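ok so I'm stuck.
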Amino acid sequence: MNIKNKGLLKMILTGIVLLAVGIIVINHTGSFLKIVMIAAGIGAFIDGLYTLNGMKKWKYTETTKNLAMIKGIESIAIGVAAVLVAIFAADAALTVMVYIFAIGLVFSAVVAFQNAATAKKFEIADMRTHFLVEGVITSLIAVLLFFKPVDTLVKVVQILAIVFIVAGGIMIVVAAIAMFKKPETVEVVVEAEPVDDKEKKD
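replied:
not stuck anymore, here's the structure
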């Protein structure tokens, strides 16, 4: 098998995996939500550790320092709770956990805006834009979660599943067409140079 066919075969296999994942997610959205919740919990736990660790490197006002410490501890607690709820609790508990996540995100947004407001006073002035963007995005996600949290998550998961299915299908079709398409033959035309009679006699 040449390099081209190996690449196309890998593309087909990737497409099949995406297609399968998309179909599974569409048919088992509830179970996939738990996976999303576990992933979000792990992310919150890591974010909490990062926040607490960052306090050692940056200079803060007393207010910002206290907010950052609360945010770090809160993120770790929410992360652990989210993983435990997703694994052991009933489906109804997911709604409660999503609201807790949303409250945590609101507090994170407050901390981000506070950091942006005080960034110029310290050695992290170049981080001001980063804090502002973080605060805006976090606020928007929190609002979405407060407004029909489970329905919002279900729609996001379903859209993601559809994207997987479409992307996988396109990859399979494109790779299959390229694999079975006959290579075009290229005709090489060579013009003969005229030979003089004198050259023939010599």
